[in-house]
Each structure stands twice: as C-alpha cells, then as structure tokens.
Amino acid sequence: MITFDRVTVRYTEDGPPPLRDVTLTVEEGELCLVAGRTGAGKSTLLRAINGLVPHFTGGTLHGSVTVDGRATRRHPPRDLADVVGVVGQDPLAGFVTDTVEEELAYGMEQLSLPPAMMRKRVEETLDLLGIAELRDRPLRTLSGGQQQRVAIGAVLTSHPRVLVLDEPTSALDPTAAEDVLAAVTRLVHDLGVTVVLAEHRLERVMQYADRLLYLPGDGRVVNGPPATVLAGVELAPPLVELGRLAGWDPLPLSVRDARRRAAQLRGRLADAAPPAPTPAPEPTTALSARKIVVRYPGTVAVAGVDLDLQVGQVVALMGRNGSGKSSLLWAVQGSGPRQGGAVRVTGSTGAVVDPESLPAHQARRQVGLVPQTPGDLLYLETVDGECHQADQETEAAAGTCRALLDQLTPGLPGDRHPRDLSEGQRLALALAVQLTAAPPVVLLDEPTRGLDYLAKQQFVSLVRGLAAAGRSVVVATHDVELVAALADRVIVMADGEIVADGSTAEVMLASPAFAPQVAKVLAPAPWLTVGQVAAALVAEREPA
Amino acid sequence: MTDAAVGSSPTVDRWSARWSAWRLPRGLHPGAWWLWALGLATAASHTTNPLGLTLLVAVTALVVIQRRGHAPWALAFRMYVWLGVVIVAMRVVFRIVLGGGQGEHVLVRLPEIPLPEWAAGIRLFGPVAAEQVLGGFYDGLRLATMLICLGAANALANPKRLLKAVPGALYAVGTAVVVALSVAPQLVESVLRVRRARRLRGASGRGMRAFRGVALPVLADALDRSLALAAAMDSRGYGRTAAVPAGQRTVTGTLVLGGLLGVCAGTYGLLDTTGPGYLGLPLLLAGLAAAVGGMLLAGRRVRRSRYRPDRWQLAELLVAGCGIAAAGLMVLAGTVDPERLYPPVSPLTWPELTPLLLLAVAVAAVPAWLAPPPTPIPKDRA
Fold first, then answer.
1. Domain ranges, residue A454
2. Directed axis angle between helix B207-235 and helix B171-200, to 10°?
3. Are residues A226 and A242 in the same domain?
4. Rounded Cα–Cα distance for residues A11 and A59 (Å)
5. Do A369 and B225 touch (CB under 8 A)?
6. Exposed/middle/buried for A340, CB within 10 Å: 0-12, 13-18, 19+?
7. Are A71 and A157 contained in the same domain?
C-alpha cells in the first residue's frame, strides 16, 4: 500500500538527514506504529506519505514514495486527498469550518462528491465514531477526545485507503485516549483501512500494532513485528522492560500476554514486598490551601478544595481533562482566578504568606508554576538571553539560571533559539527559569506531554532531585506509568473536587483505570514499577 | 354535489400536505433574510416619522423573536437594539450641546459658554428648544432603525452560510474570510494565555518589554497554527483544480482584469460630467459584463460540490419579496404624502400615519409567520 524506495530526506545541505536511504513497505490493512525519540524524524516519515514532505515543508527528497500506486513526486498532497487522510497532533489547529457536520463534509466538498453521497457518508461516519450527538456542536466547545475523533471522522468521509495519525492521543486523558484508539482499531478491523500511527506512549498501542517502525535517530528505520523490534530498543514501555527482566521470549505486548506468562515470576516475588515509601522524618507543611473555589461563567472549576503539601514530597495530580487540575494549580500560585479560600505558604525565611496578596515578582519566589505550554514563558532569541533575563528578574547572582539549567540538562548550546529546542529541553529551560527565583513549592502543569521514554526518565530523576533538595513538587499529569515511578502521593480530582488522596500505592492499586501495567500483571501483589521488581529480584538472588 | 365533494377533497389534502411541508423547521437561505432586512432598512431611510419608525423596529423585533435560531449570533440582536438606543441618545445630546437656537418652545435655558471669535456660528449649550431636541430624536431614530434592521439580518442568518453562497470564482476569498473569522478568537485566547504566563515570571504586564514578551510568543503561535492549518487544508484536497489549458487561463485573466479596469474607468466617466458620453455608462456596463464573464469561466475551474446547500425556494422568494414590497410601498407613500412621512418639527405637530405606511409595516411583518420555523435546539444542549 505504501512503499518507500531508497528515500533520503534533507532539510539543509550540511545537516544530518532525518531519513537516510529508507526502504520499506506497509501492506494493506496493517496498523503500523511509528516510534522513536523526539526529533528522530517520525513526523518527517509520516508527512512523506502524503507528499507534505517535500511539497509543503521544503527540503529535498531522494528516492520515491508510492501510495496506492501513486508517486508523491508527481502528486501534491491535495491530489492524494482521496487516498491518504492525515490527522495532526492538535486537531483544533487543522479544523477549517466551525461545526462538526460541516467539518465532516469539508474534505468531500473539495473532492466534489455528489451531495446525496456526502449526506450518506456524513451520517455513517457520525455513527462509526460515536459522535452523532455532537453533529451541530461548534468545534471549539468539544473536549479534546471528541475533537480528535471529529478530526479522524473528517478525513474518513473521503474514504481514504490510508490513515496517517501523528500522536493522536498525546493531549488526552487515559479514557479519552482509549476512545480514540478503540475507534482507530475498529477502522483497521472493520474497514480494512491501513493506519500509520506515531505515538510516544507505546504501552497504549503496541498490542494492536502489526508492524513497528522504530527510528533510532540516525536516519535509519528499523522495520519488523513489534515484539522483535522492541527487543533491540534501548528504552521501552514497562511491559517490555518487565519481559526482558523475566527473560520472556517473545516479549509480551499486552497485559493479557504478560499475565499468562507471569505465574512463575509472581511465585518468585511471593515472599518479597516492594520497599515501603520512606516517610519524611517529620512532615513539615510547605503549603496549605483551604476551601479553594474557582468559578468560570457557567461552571465551577474547583469546588472548595483543601490541599496540603509537605516539604520534600512529590504529589501527582490526576483526573480527566476539565476536572479542575490546572485551575487549582493556577489558583494556588496566585496568578489565576480564585473566588474563595486561602493559601498559606511557609517561605524559606519562615514567614507565612498568601501568594495572591503579593505582587507577581514576589509570588514566584513562594510558588513557581510551569504552565502546560512551557514555551509561553520564553520570549527571547537565545537560551543565554533567557538565562540572563531570569537572573535579572529575580536579582539572583549572574549565572544562577545557567547553573540550574546545566543541572537539569547539561550542555545545552547557549546560542540556540528556544523554539528550536526539543520538548524536553524547552521544559528544562522553563523550569530553570522558574527555579531561579528559588521557590519552596514548584507546580508543573502536564510537563510530560511529548516527552519520550528517555526524556521522561531524565524528568523523573530531575523532579526527585528537587524533592531531595527540600522542595515540594506537584505534577499534574495523565501519565499513569510516570506517576508510578515519580510520585509519593497521588490526588485524583473529578468535577472540581478531590475524590482520592493517598500514597501512590494506595491510590493506584485501588482502581484499574489508574493501575500501571506492572501492577496489572503482578496483581494482587502491590508492585508498581519495573525498578521495584528488579531490586527485589536482585535481593532474592543475593542471599542464595 | 357529489362531484364537487370528490373533486375538492384531494385538492384540500394536497394543500394541507404542502402547508405542513412548508411548516417543517429549516433554516431559511441567508440571502432571503438579508434582502428582507435591506428592504426594511430602505423603507426606514425614506421616513422620519417616529410612529412609522417605531412600528418598523417593533416588526423587526417580532420577526427576529419568532424566527431566530439558537446559535450564538442569534443573540446579537439585543446588542444592536442597545446600539440603536445609544445612537438616538447621542443625537439628542449633540443637539443640546451644539444646537442652534432655533425653535420657540424653549424647554430649559442652560448657561451658554462663550467661544472665541474664530468659532463664530458654533454655540455651546444655551437655550434648549423642543423643536431642536425633537429634530435630533427623529434623525437618530431613523439611523437607529436602519441599524436594527441590519442587526436583524445578522441574528436571523448565519453570516458564514452567506459566505458559502458566493459564486465559485470567489470561493477562495470566502474560505479566507471564514478562516480569518475563526482565527480571531484563537488569537485572543493565546494572548490571554501568554499574558498569564508572563505574570508567572513576575512581569507586571505593562510597558514596552511586556508588550514584546506577549507579542513574540503570540505571533510565533499564530504562525505555527496557520502553517498547521495550511498543511491540513492541503492534505484534505483544498485547491484541487480541474486541468485547464493555458489558453483558457489567459482568457479568464484578461477578461477579469480588463473588466475591472473597465468598471473603474466607467465609474469615473459617469461621475465626471465633462468627459465624452461613451466613457460613462456604456463602458461601465461593458466592464461589468466582461468581469462577470471572467468570473463565471474561472468558477468552472473550481471543481467542488456543496454539502447541504441552502436552496432558494418559495418561502425565500416570499420573505425577500416582503422586504422589497415594504421598501416600495414606503417610497410610494413618500410621493403621495411627503408631509406625513417627514413630519415638520416647526411648528410642533403630532406625527400621523398614512394608510400606505401602515401597509408597508404590515407587509414587513408577514415573514414572522410565513418563514419556516427555525430548527429546534439539539438535545444535548437543551
């Protein structure tokens, strides 16, 4: 269906090519997963399929890409619209019209299909993706998962043979992501659509994939069945790591696979127990918020929430999109709206203050917040410029910010433009800028969006380092595996209220929706991460 | 008798069937509402009779309330009414502040502010006469009524659907406008987001540095988003054109460009009375014909179909007709009885209605029942 024949893509003459001499074939009806580190060329590969590379992005493409017998060399993307449907990472950015029904029809209008057929296909697609009740809704009022399904529907109405999805679930909460992936697998199984899908969180999709294209980052593409390819990959989802640890072959791709093979492992671990979380010697409260209320016209975002943060503790804040996580963080920091309640922060000097009553440049010395899009904090041309500015703003000694940045990610070139950094590097820079003010409390709003496994691992050690230095950290996130490896305490919010608050093991093992994969495989024993299991296995071997 | 009964009953059935089909809720073609509203605005521009104008506003409001949908723009009518009130108030206030001293019925004497020599002829405050206030009120009311009529069109017809009805050659322009309309709220959103983020870095949010701190990320954001949109539109087939031979393309271009030039020259000739006669109307018409021809040709190049297009049916014809008839009747009333359509303020008289004016208003009100009802509220928003 899709053939790459000795494809090399270059954006600049002297830079390394994102794709080098790639030859591969994706058969009809396959679900093909594309994985690799940030910046390894996943988007380039996806965009080459419908000719956006190089027709739209520029650069040069050697070799040939053929889709359903049509070469992208001679067919620009618009002429491939009836064969390839492309859905981007941010569905809202790709919407052309303003209601669901018109958006579904837009592609067909461009293909000049007869009105009767358009009408029929719109109805079919609404049903296929389960969005019939949204048909008259303005696109901007939909939730993230709904928007993503509408975006998929909008390309499906043209009946493409190939569907290309670039990280369709990266912004979604676990349930919404499940909905979208369920819709995608249904398309593969019921309609025989060929799907090419890029995804960072492999644990969500690898069990459905027929083929895995792994981009190591040097321009090569490793092509094969997921279990085989993952065996040679340096960092992989927890299930695969667990499989390697236990020596399973082939590697398990779903919780079901792993659980059926894990009987022996469970036996070996029967006597061991995961290390109990080491409680702080004497918990000191760094921040205490009482009866926080945030209201927006027509909704109550946060409904009288109490929150206590301890020194040296990492708290994960979870809950579906729109459950009030961001509003709570912003209200606690003092920059966001807050209609009721009080916040008390014990600063490094011992004085107790409410950050909302302080001017902005002093509030950030009490509570530092890194927003969902960390790039919003940055506005200068170079990394050095940002660091210098951060030192000046906070009256810190020159070089403070740069030193912090080097602790977080060593060796970031100072003359680089912040927009050219990878997601992880940009997050580190924004975090360094906020840490320059030395706040005792640090709040991070969905920091791991778009981070690959390696970057996430670095992020975990970075945050643990902050906590060890006596800071209190809150991380709002959807990523269950990250929480298992990172947090001491988990708070779950729903509809503006806290519905669960307890130690990571308590909260995560209590419900399947929040359980990490390792816990699902080894239940009922309370294991959360591969690291815990590995440590226990080593301990078991030593006395023997 | 039996024959008559047999003969009449199917006819009655057919008519009742047609009537119920007519009553099916649907959105009227936006063009029909605009024609109706423009007709009403024209009618309003032909009178200063406060009774007639008030009736026109009442009729407009009645039709809007009866036939508007549930979309956000439908609520804009209230805003237009308030704008109208502001216009009337402004007119009256200006007359009081800067009013000449005409009129015998002085209501109140304000202290006059003496102005220097060079401002002779302008008077600040001074005596306020009833005639002067009333004149301002009549004038303001006329302008406000015209504005409210246009507001009604905005509330009744989806402005974006009107853009969808443009001819094929202007399709690209229509798409650009729709995209621009949807980008504006996104821009506001990202300005708010970045300003909030700037506060996190301790910026006060004022001054040149703050402007730079907000403008750069917002612009970068807007640029990213437009690139993403352009890529999405390209990959969804926007701009697919039928293969056109080079010769035809040249012909189309020449026709459109030449035609538009002709229109410009013709308009100039028409307004400039000293020029030769052939430069006026004939050139204008020829230019117009050439431009329209070119656009029709270009429209054939655009190969696309429309999903659920608004169709021009009998109801549309009647609604538009009502507006045009109202305008016509008002013009007629003006020629028959100009005194009553422009009631004099001096001497002060009570304005009176004429039968033709009343008829015009009545005709304008008919769409409140004639137009099909709007589609009901979707269940999930009820």
1. 285-510
2. 140
3. no
4. 4
5. no
6. middle
7. yes
> Strand ranges (DSSP E) for A204-274?
211-215, 222-224
Give every CB contact of residue A493 below 8 A, 6+ residues apart in sequence.
Answer: A305, A317, A318, A319, A323, A324, A325, A328, A499
Number of domains in chain A: 3
Are A81 and A195 members of one domain? yes
Q: For residue A188, how many other CB atoms are within 10 A of its CB?
A: 20
pLDDT per residue over A10-60, tens digit each? 988 888 888 999 999 999 999 999 998 877 888 899 999 989 988 888 889
Q: Identify the CATH number of the domain in which residue A454 sits.
A: 3.40.50.300
Q: Are residues A289 and A386 in the same domain?
A: yes
Write down the residue that tokens 């050697």 correspond to.
A62
Tell me the CA distances in angstroms from B37 to A139, B143, B145, B149, B323, one per residue in order. 30, 14, 11, 5, 6
> Which residue, among B14, B84, B73, B8, has the nearest Cα to B44 in the 3D structure?
B84
**Same domain membership, residue A362 and residue A401:** yes
Q: How far is CA A443 from CA A474, A477, B160, in A?
A: 5, 11, 42
Asked whether residue A260 falls in the same domain as residue A293, the answer is: no
Q: Shortest CB distance from B240 goes to which of A86, A94, A110?
A: A110
Same domain, yes or no: A136 and A210: yes
Q: Do the chains contact at B203 and A360, CB–CB below 8 Å?
A: yes
Lookup: tokens for B302:
């655009």
Cβ distance A81 to B380 less than 8 Å, yes or no, reads no
pTM of the predicted structure, to 2 decimals:
0.79
**Distance separating alpha carbons of residues A316 and B316, to the nearest angstrom:** 59
Compute chain A's Rg from CA coordinates: 25
ipTM of the predicted structure? 0.85
User: Are the C-beta atoms of residues A253 and A521 closer than 8 Å to each other?
Assistant: no
The token pair at B158 is 């989806």
Which of A96, A99, A165, A389 would best serve as a mutation to test chain B binding (most B beta carbons within 10 A)? A96
Instruction: Write the pLDDT tens digit of every residue in A329-351.
Output: 999 998 888 998 899 988 767 77
Half-sphere exposure of B63 (CA within 13 A, CB side): 34
